[in-house]
């Protein structure tokens, strides 16, 4: 299982709460940027990956790729991939690194879709949600051999009923 959050915009407590809920119980915990925290902040201890967003000024990496179980995960904030105008560049870069999952933030709204064999997931925002689902949220990914179970969670760690998906691997 993979936990994904993004766009905390200085809300250190929410990042810590989510991390503490899942630490040692999941395969990876990712933050897709715009934390507005320092790279050396102890919040990031034992997290799988944190990337730099357009509101971050410390030396976080802008992209990352890593193997989590049988999945190769590409992580970025998304602003440098033009995610506001489509997912083509995100998918192309994920495929360049042979990744089958692409995690991104920036838009502050949930997106879960499989594009050209790559799961593209935006976890929404844990601090400043936008769009139709005005709920502070993060996402869980439970990969299986033939699908991805996606659960968007509120900050009370409860599933958001209308944001539960089972997407086939393509």
Automatic annotation (TrEMBL):
Keywords: Metal-binding
Lineage: superkingdom: Bacteria
GO MF entries: hydrolase activity; metal ion binding
Cofactor annotation: a divalent metal cation
Pfam families with a match to the protein in the record: Metallophos_2
InterPro entries to which the protein is assigned, alphabetical: Calcineurin-like_PHP_lpxH, Metallo-depent_PP-like, MPP_YfcE, Phosphodiesterase_MJ0936/Vps29
EC code: 3.1.4.-
Domain Calcineurin-like phosphoesterase: 2-139
UniProt family annotation: Belongs to the metallophosphoesterase superfamily. YfcE family.
NCBIfam families membership: yfcE
Protein name (record): Phosphoesterase
Protein source organism: Pseudolactococcus hodotermopsidis
Classification of source organism: Bacteria, Bacillati, Bacillota, Bacilli, Lactobacillales
